[in-house]
Amino acid sequence: MKRTGEFILSIIALIINGLSLLGGLSFKKLSTNTLEDQLQTSGTELSKQDIHDMVAAMNHLGSYLIILASISIILAIIALVCLQGNKKPKLAGLFLIIAAVSSIITVVPFILYLIAGILALIKRPKGNRY
């Protein structure tokens, strides 16, 4: 049985998760002092503490994105290997659903992984009706 649908959905979600990983890395790469200076010169009426808190929140968000995107990318790659050649579709479905849960902050990969995982779990070979 071909698993083309699950494979394509997983690859699209994998690419989007890779982009969110790059976004998380760019959040972490931003220099705290440079970002604080830019926020102060932008003309906003924020105090130093507010600006510092905002920059700290962006750093935490970057760390969160990096960790979750890395976990879901690894799980998706393992699931793709299990799907290849229809070796272990149930295990692949489980990995895809776990990848969906770990990428819940990015909505599109969450939906794509979830659909692919459910498809991998419920699709049966043509010979087995029940």
UniProtKB/TrEMBL annotation:
Name under which the protein is recorded: DUF4064 domain-containing protein
Lineage, highest ranks first: Bacteria, Bacillati, Bacillota, Bacilli, Bacillales
Signal peptide extent: none
Spans traversing the lipid bilayer: 7-27, 61-83, 95-122
Highest rank taxon of the organism: Bacteria
This protein's UniProt keywords: Membrane, Transmembrane, Transmembrane helix
Any Pfam family: DUF4064
InterPro entries membership: DUF4064 (IPR025273)
Domain DUF4064: 2-106
